[in-house]
Amino acid sequence: MKNITLIILFILTIITANAQNSLPNLSLKTIDGKTIKTDELSKNGPIVISLWATWCGPCNKELDAISDVYDEWVEETGIKLYAVSIDDSRTVKRVKPLVNGKGWEYEILLDTNHELKRALGVSTVPVTLIVKNNKIVYRHSGYTPGAEDELFEEIKKHTK
């Protein structure tokens, strides 16, 4: 019985580790209602994924800070950012007005059932990822002013 328990724990550890090192194959909706498959997002080069929520102050601060320099990032590296809202069915109606009000130029995706959040093992937001060929090559949790500069340095490493 002890061996079976150890085998099951080992398998679960491997599954969890793999889920956190690669982008899972899920379907998410855009704020305009189109369906996007997550495993197709990084097929044309590295991307940034930011998991956030309307009610998360640090998330909004991070996306505002990136918004200030995003055009320069795109021009220099060609990077594309997908801001994935984890707002649930009760708060998802706030996403589009917030995004429009802030003028964010990102592709906004909705993870209202928290499938992506769970698959990536995310417990709190914001979480920012750089994904290259569906592999997560950079992961950062939380936000402090200036973290966008560190993120840009990582982007440059992976877009050369």
Q: Would you mind describing this structure in some detail?
A:
- Mean pLDDT is 90; it is low at 9-19.
- The longest helix has 21 residues, at 57-77.
- This protein is globular.
- A 7-stranded mixed β-sheet has the order 2-1-5-4-3-6-7, covered by helices on one side.
- The chain has helices spanning 2-21, 57-77, 95-102, 115-119, 147-159; strands spanning 27-30, 35-37, 47-52, 80-85, 107-110, 127-132, 135-141.
- With 160 residues, the chain is of the alpha/beta class.
What is the secondary structure topology, with strand pairs?
Elements (H helix, E strand, L loop, with lengths): L1 H20 L5 E4 L4 E3 L9 E6 L4 H21 L2 E6 L9 H8 L4 E4 L4 H5 L7 E6 L2 E7 L5 H13 L1
Parallel strand pairs: 3-4, 4-5
Antiparallel strand pairs: 1-2, 1-5, 3-6, 6-7
Helix pairs in contact: 2-5
Helical content (DSSP H or I, runs of 4+): 40-55%
Largest sheet: 7 strands, mixed
Task: Quote the CATH topology.
Answer: Glutaredoxin
**Topology pattern, helix = H, strand = E:** HEEEHEHEHEEH
Q: What share of residues are in beta strands?
A: 15-25%
Overall pLDDT score: 90
**CATH architecture classification:** 3-Layer(aba) Sandwich
* CATH class division: Alpha Beta
Termini distance? 51 Å
What's a concise summary of this model?
The chain has a single domain, classed as Glutaredoxin (3-Layer(aba) Sandwich), CATH 3.40.30.10. It contains five helices and seven strands, in the order H-E-E-E-H-E-H-E-H-E-E-H.
Name a few traits of the molecule.
5 helices, alpha/beta, Glutaredoxin, 22% strand, 160 residues, seven-stranded mixed beta sheet
